[in-house]
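Q: Could you fold this chain for me?
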Amino acid sequence: MASVFKRKRDSRKRNAPWYVAYNDHLGKRRMRKGFTDKGLTEQLGAKLENEAMLRKRGLIDPAEEEAAERRKTPIAELLAAFETSLQRSDNTRKHVGLTMARIRRIIDEAGIETPGDIDIDSVEEVLREMLDAEEIGHKTYNHYVQSVYQFCRWLTAAKRAILPFNPLAGMDRLNTEIDVRRPRRALTPEEFAALVQSARSSNLRIQCFDGEERAMIYLISYFTGLRRKEIDSLTPRSFDLAGKPQTITVQAACSKHRRKDVLPLHAELAEILAGWLPGKALDQVLFPNLGKRRTWYMVKKDLERVGIPYETPEGFADFHAAGRHTHITQLLRSGASIAEAKELARHSDVRMTMKYYAQRMIMLSHFRKCLPARSSALDYCA
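A: Sure. Below is the predicted structure, expressed as structure tokens.
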């Protein structure tokens, strides 16, 4: 039987709240704060007793009730917890910031206040408005979807079970092939050789690197396929020139997929490094702050010096294109299988590698014209 009472310290206070004590469905005595009006508090007590009786008889599922309450958790509270989990998962600060910015924009513009408000229609409506306003392209649209999907998946994890299932499961992504905002083009071996030679013969420092340093950056990117920030992390200790095979190591903290990578070194690159690395301290960063430099500008200037256009109808020849993009294209040109190219390029999805294969088929005849009697772009760099 529920009882209504005031606390002793409040017994003489006119506006002090009443409390109700009752037994829950497990027989445990509970206390709940009521109202300043005794009659309303008695009604609350009767309601609590009735709900306890229904739970005891199995007409109300306590687990479902708890789940419903969790779905009403303020979304801001959950976003803060999710951000903390991303930070603890060894993600970069940039990745965490970008992911959270995307999620928060969707949440705010969709008017989502609790996790129970999340649904495909609400998310799609916001993204379609951004797409129609030409704020984003298809690729960025998919990045937004992935970010919010990741948040929803976190909400469904067994240890927290905020949601019983991912409300965005089955949400469509857009075809990025029909909306390429910045197409890239691989350089021909002849163009790449001219780029290296242009840097070596330059007396200018561009983005804090002299000509020889830029040439080495280009060569490492071309022969290894490493990304800009991965090259930024290299020291002489990253290279094993005495091993069989000779290798280059990218530490997990610097790799895009957060795993330690040990890649084979091309023999010609190993020969160049053997003459360039001596005299440098083992832990000396070879190209300081490369990840923060405008590397596209370096390539553009070095290409212009030898009369090679930075932009053509096929796309831009920025740093990523001149190095990694050309590296993967050359792997396929040299006869590597799709699976081998995927492994060496460290792609998580073979569909990414297939894009290079399609481009390689288009450019194959051009490559043959450029290299009638030579097998390596390095022949042009001598």
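A (continued): The radius of gyration is 31 Å.
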